[in-house]
UniProtKB/TrEMBL annotation:
Molecular function in Gene Ontology: ABC-type maltose transporter activity; ATP binding; ATP hydrolysis activity
Membrane topology note: Peripheral membrane protein
Residue ranges constituting the ABC transporter domain according to the UniProt record: 4-234
Cellular localization per UniProt: Cell inner membrane
Annotated TM spans: none
Gene this protein is translated from: ugpC
GO cellular component, one term: ATP-binding cassette (ABC) transporter complex, substrate-binding subunit-containing
Organism field: Stappia sediminis
Protein name, per record: sn-glycerol-3-phosphate ABC transporter ATP-binding protein UgpC
Keyword set, alphabetical order: ATP-binding, Nucleotide-binding, Transport
Span covered, complete protein: 1 to 238 of 359
Family named by the database record: Belongs to the ABC transporter superfamily.
Amino acid sequence: MARVELNQVRKAFGTTDVIHGVDLQIEDGDFVVFVGPSGCGKSTLLRMIAGLEDVTSGEVTIGGERVNETDPAKRGVAMVFQSYALYPHMTVEENMSFGLRMTGAPKAEIAERVHRASEILQLDALLARKPSQLSGGQRQRVAIGRAIVRNPRVFLFDEPLSNLDAELRVQMRVEIAKLHRELGSTMIYVTHDQTEAMTLADKIVVLREGRVEQFGTPLELYENPANAFVAGFIGSPK
Ligand code: ADP
Ligand code: MG
């Protein structure tokens, strides 16, 4: 089970509070999108869910276990960033298998997982290439492939498509939706693209200055926005 729960999560950097007591329950297998203006704390929340950043108070649990008390290798979380830092000297196949090789997984298992991920992402024909020989969209697929091979319970995406041009963004959005259907993993996805949010999300979290303004399905937010701020973000008439 990969239910993700945040209970009264606060985060301060120095004396500045950036996350103010956030409560969230994300069901196993849900696709949840975080939206909100730049600086409202989306990345900080994701990093706390990943266990990459400590909470100042409160707790984050995945499958009932506190993230900061779980061995990083056993958290079952994989994160995909906007700047897909691939290793330039390694092939696509090596880039995808590197993290797994570090865990000491058996060779045959690594090969099988890379094979499966490259099938899902249609990277089969590109496995021997170096990142410099790939398009932006292909590189981003490799970055997602690196996450898939780790077989995570929870995928965290931090504006993964914002460096791509409009056409590729649409294409990748469709692929990410397909990935969610095929893998059934819990996915938490940060974007400021309203279309991405509305089309990908089972539920949307609207954030403002470190607080949750509203949490609901795209339809709920569209038809019944909690306030003008939410309406402005979702594009409904209120
Ligand atoms: P978003 O991803 O929504 O743009 P962030 O989570 O990156 O927002 O940042 C939320 C707030 O926390 C911002 O005011 C940012 O300047 C601040 N912040 C983020 N990381 C740090 C840090 N390591 N040290 C100090 N302040 C930070
Ligand atoms: Mg951010």
